Amino acid sequence: MQDTVNREQDAADRATGYRMEARQVSKIFGTHKALDGVDFGLLPGEVHALLGENGAGKSTLIKILTGAYQPDGGAIFVDGEEVHLTSPLQAQTYGIGTVYQEVNLLPNRSVAENLFLGHQPTRFGLVDRRRMDREARVLLKRYGLDIDPSSELGAHSVAVQQIVAIARAVQLSGKVLILDEPTASLDRDEVQRLFEVIASLKRDGLAIVFITHFLDQVFALADRVTILRNGRLVDTRRLTELSRTDLVRKMLGKDIAFSGSTSLEAERPPTELLLDFKGYGRKRSVRPFSLAIHKGEVIGVAGLLGSGRTEMARMMFGIDPADEGSVTLSGKPITVKSATEAIGHGFGFCPEDRKADGILGDLSVRENIVIALQGKLGWFRALNRDEQLDLAGQFGEAMDIRAASLDMPVKLLSGGNQQKVILARWLATDPAFLILDEPTRGIDVGAHAEIVRTINRLRDDGMALVVISSEIDEVVAYSSRVVVMRDREMVAELKGEDINPAVIVQAIATHGENSEFEAEVTA
Amino acid sequence: MNRSLRPLLATVVIFLIAYAAAVFQFPGLLSTRVLGNFLTDNAFLGIAAVGMTFVIISGGIDLSVGAVIGFTGVLVAVLITWLGWHPLAAFAAAFVVAAAFGAAMGLVIHYLEVPPFIVTLAGMFLARGGASVITQDSVPIDHPFYSAISSLYWRLPGGGRLSFVGLLMVAVFVVGAIVAHRTKFGSYVYALGGNATSASLMGVPVARTTVQIYTLSSVLACLAGIVFSLYTSAGYPLAAVGVELDAIGAVVIGGTLLTGGYGFVFGTFVGVMLLGLVQTYIIFDGTLSSWWTKIVIGFLLFLFIVLQRLVFAASARGDRVAEKA
Description:
By secondary structure, chain A is an alpha/beta fold. In chain A, 37% of the residues lie in helices and 24% in strands.
């Protein structure tokens, strides 16, 4: 590993004085080390981006900095003094305020009350509304908001609510502001507005931690960046010293110089066209893209967490339907406005978070397998128990699901077997097109290989698949083509020899338009 | 206009239209005599409904109200008639018992995370059962202090009487409105109803506020029970059965959202008056069964719930579009 921290720079920064510092903090959940001796220093008047993929320890570190978790090792310092943060409220008294992705305010109350709740100005023991509204107006003006403070917060856009949340946090805390994915549900103009607010707070000397999945935003806004991976500190750097490619490489832990392996699948001639997405997109979710998918083809989807991978899958499956563009199935135009409709077209979808979205933990293996087929048949043609057992047995065997009994609750199975149950569920509906979102996450190495083998087998059987994965080696291993997502946009479609880890990492990292990028890789 | 004002405005308009229509049919309804009786006859319901308004705005429900009214009546009657206590001492004892009862429900709701519906349902059985264990029969209250207060009234121009209990209800509404809209406690109640998670992240003392809300509701139910016993001069364990549902009805008709977060104490007042008007109209008519009251109330409730749904669903979209433009 090249986990080198720039010691000199570190020493120089420390000399100027950290506003807030975490020294060698660790956090253990059961046997899992979520954070392992991480150092994090925050300077006054800087925007410090915190980056890392799922499981990197980002959210654990944030929760420690805001007092939601207590570290198992290490210490937290504010202005050089050691502090023990016990709750977000108590952290507020040390000047640490947090704004979350989901606005944690009260949509049913006025803007002014949201700014001052718990600290309202009072007169004779009663809340002085007029003064509260007046102070709110002055405060909001500083953030460039000219809105009626007595209006209901919920009537305003998410961006305005986000700015109100920031105003509240700064008002009550005033030293450190932690922004946890504040831009995730904003459109471009709103992001711009938020950035202006953040920039002005920075000039006022506030220390700002900025968490986002959008690399463009990191480069646009942040002064320094700290990258975490698997609970460890990878690097803390000034952004001026770091290229995009280096940044992505550090996040993914990929050494770009490794194996020049390309996919064997890349050479296969295209077969019959199955699905043709044209200008397919959804506002605030995924920018329009075009993608043709042939029978017997695996489209690998690469990109960082939050790049729009999952949103794309959900849109293709009709969960969050597209609001522009068109799609044809075997040449006929179709619509996919709901998951039911998608299943009717012969689509299947294994979601990313199988615990929350996929398996029905308390139901048996049998019930979990037949449920999608039952949904497709409609509730009036109930499968009887024998048919169910027959189906479950057949697909259970095909998928090699290891369960003591098919009537066992699914939640008792291992992650790999649960994943196979979900695959079996969709295979029972005999889909023509299957979307797999992170099919190998959180399962052991053996099951991993089996899932990859299954993907290859399904492709050979003529099924079309879209497989999303953060594991670049894996994407390379099974993809016929690879599309790369970045900042909710499809930025590249790679074929043939370009399907190798180095090119993919490059594509994820590259800034700018598709055309520039293509020029770069062909060069 | 603030969209939460719309259901309230609708209630006021419907009340005025209904009252005008009733007066058109029975001109006798337009007199201070009838209006005074409105207040007196609905005083206990109104007082209980103020407590219910707080509970519902906070996103909860209190089903124990009617039972607490019945229990209070029995307790007060037993203390005065059997044990010879002074009514004021009996009232004080009843308030202490009710406050402890409400606080206990609030504690269970917050710390054991049991839904208020279940906790207050249990509270209802406890209070009703407790009252019946003390006595099965109606216990008359015959005390000079009692007759003095229950016959206390101020004469209104036009021959009407504003009774002490009627005035008490109005006072409870006024204080209730100030507490709801002008104190930090009031803002915390709305905060809980809006989003309890956000509220706790914003520093609202969720535990304390929850306990206070249910204590307030039980104390007001106790006050309603005292008023009811003044009104009937007796304590009866099966008194005020189902009053909690009338109170919920009045609160919802008054424009408070049953899911919490929005509502007005004044709206509840109009709701109570609307229920009173329906009852009075049916008495004036004389040919209708008193069960028609329930049918009309059921219809009104349905109407208001649909109305709220439309107002909140439509304005949520409309306002946001306006913001973007």
